[in-house]
Design a protein that fits this description.
Shape: globular
CATH superfamily of the domain at 2-44 and 62-184: Deoxyuridine triphosphatase (dUTPase)
Largest sheet: 6 strands, antiparallel
Number of strands: 17
Radius of gyration: 20 Å
Order of helices and strands: EHEEEEEEEEEHEEEEEHHEE
Number of helices: 4
CATH class of the domain at 2-44 and 62-184: Mainly Beta
Mean pLDDT: 80
Distance between the termini: 41 Å
Low-confidence stretches: 190-202, 211-221, 223-228, 230-240
CATH topology of the domain at 2-44 and 62-184: Deoxyuridine 5'-Triphosphate Nucleotidohydrolase, Chain A
Structural class: mainly beta
CATH architecture of the domain at 2-44 and 62-184: Distorted Sandwich
Length: 240
């Protein structure tokens, strides 16, 4: 696996691996990304009786999403991230990774120096395509608000070239977050989610896998058309 530097990054932009970017954002070994329009803020409620926070439970193994509200940095204006507050944001840029390329998001030092943190979830697998990058941001300060505005430089992405991934193991086929044009919370894939320790749920997952088998696929990226094509063989036993 090799890190791609300046000239190689320019070629990636020409090939459409990252769109809605420009040459001014290309660094020596990374490309800056900017805040897109939408932010999902955690939606908290107060108890009618005690006026205290009414906590909601999220079960990790169920891949449940937290309760959120959508905020538009264009229509609603800048968003203030208060101390200890968490939000999901999105990149302005859209990514199309071929099967020989993976990427990773890195927070800029200037962001970290004001107490803005990004959770450790910035890896982008080969084959991920047609999507903005969802960012998990937290204000770690105790006495400062952080103002987030549309098109702020929020971080940078580094790219790694590696041996081509087999088509049937590509994120283009196996991933849940392809073709997301806006910020997304957790998505549940019922054909892949098995709740370990629950025999009934494991049996249900096996039934889903039997009825909806993964077809043989071919994944190709066409830079000239800026598209990643996923074609699947017909499965005569798959339900209509």
């Amino acid at each position: 696996m090799s890190l791609i530097s300046y000239k190689g990054l320019l070629s990636l932009l020409d090939a459409g691996v990252m769109v809605h970017s420009d040459l001014d954002n290309v660094n020596s070994a990374s490309i800056d990304i900017r805040l897109g329009e939408f932010i999902l803020t955690e939606h908290v409620e107060l108890s009618d009786v005690t006026r205290a926070l009414s906590l909601k439970r999220v079960v990790l193994r169920n891949k449940e999403a937290i309760a959120t509200r959508k905020h538009s940095l264009i229509k609603d204006g800048p968003f203030i991230l208060y101390p200890g507050e968490f939000c999901l944001a999105q990149s302005h840029e859209i990514f199309n990774l071929p099967n020989s390329l993976s990427a990773e998001y890195k927070l800029k030092s200037s962001m970290a120096r004001i107490g803005l943190e990004h959770l450790n979830a910035g890896w982008c697998d080969a084959g991920w395509h047609g999507s903005v990058l969802t960012l998990e941001l937290v204000n770690l300060c105790r006495g400062h608000e952080i103002v987030l505005q549309h098109m702020d430089h929020i971080g940078q992405v580094v790219f790694f070239r590696h041996e081509e991934v087999p088509a049937d193991r590509s994120y283009a086929v196996r991933g849940r977050y392809n073709n997301d044009k806006t910020v997304q919370g957790v998505k549940l894939d019922p054909t892949r989610s098995i709740h370990f320790g629950d025999e009934e749920e494991e049996h249900m997952a096996e039934e889903v896998a039997r009825k909806y088998p993964e077809p043989a696929v071919t994944v190709t990226f066409e830079p000239a058309r800026n598209v990643l094509i996923v074609s699947a063989d017909d499965d005569p036993e798959a339900p209509e």
